[in-house]
């Protein structure tokens, strides 16, 4: 597993471009002889199915496999060879868990049921799970149970973090471009600068949270702004603003979106600017099934892993939310050590000491379901 993990770490690929990663996973899965191996799912995803001798429940484990546009600042032989790209979210480790599980299944199959391993592309952009679910394979196949995990720095190594209901927030990105007209900086009034419109929109965003969802939680974050070009001689004619809206509830997020978009458009109109806007990278909330979460807790106990019940959900998003909608599913966290740098930090490197706990909990979940 360590070899799988470090090899993937050395050759990271961005969301939607996981060509070599998929090729390597394919090559490593082949000796485990899955009954079915599907490739090119939702881009470069793979699904390996292992049927046991007798019929029984079917369980699917999902790992994400993409890296980030973040340089790899680690001092190790497996440092990224792809300039500016790094496995900074530990998806190399997630993929290695499932590859380890494939090997175990080949050596020690269960008596009943089926295990499926989903290697999912493009998690970071929120596009992968939805794209995988568009594939025709799901017309004849639906697992009874679905599980996934994320490594979490800041929590003790191997500690399993569970939560019933909402585990991670829903979010969506909004981008608005404003088009006015440039003018000489000595005569800005003869042009139409998007400056004031951008300031008003930024002010609205930073005045958040507003009571869109009185019973829940929501957050709007300004993530990017641009005004004209970096000159001194020209009053700008172009503006760009990007923000992310978040909520613990999908409907509440929809409400936030339906209030925010007309407001942004009204501001553009008020300053006589043309605009073009778009919603990007939507993530539904990850909403766990309590029965599935119960199975995670039981497996953590049999695997001898410490546990912690989360009192609140995570504010970040995970596109596993697409899998919790159609399936009985649970997503959980596993601590990767208190002293680790944060996820998406240039120095983050999934710790190999977590490979075994990650594999063990998946194996115990499967064992509990498939030993009859
Ligand atoms: Zn991640």
Name its key features.
four-stranded antiparallel sheet; binds zinc ion; eight-stranded mixed sheet; elongated; alpha/beta
Report on the structure:
The protein has 372 residues and is an alpha/beta fold. Helices cover 29% and strands 28% of the residues. It is built from 9 helices and 16 strands. Helix 3 links the parallel strand 3 and strand 4. Helix 1 packs antiparallel against helix 3, helix 3 packs across helix 9 and helix 7 packs across helix 9. 46% of the residues are buried. The chain binds zinc ion. The site of zinc ion has 4 residues, from loops.
How would the global form be characterised?
elongated
Strand order of the largest sheet: 1-2-4-3-5-16-6-15
Pattern of helices and strands: HHEEEHEHEEEEEHEEEHEEHEHEH
Query: What are the distinct ligands in this entry?
Result: zinc ion
Strand tally: 16
Q: Describe the main β-sheet briefly.
A: 8 strands, mixed
Number of helices: 9
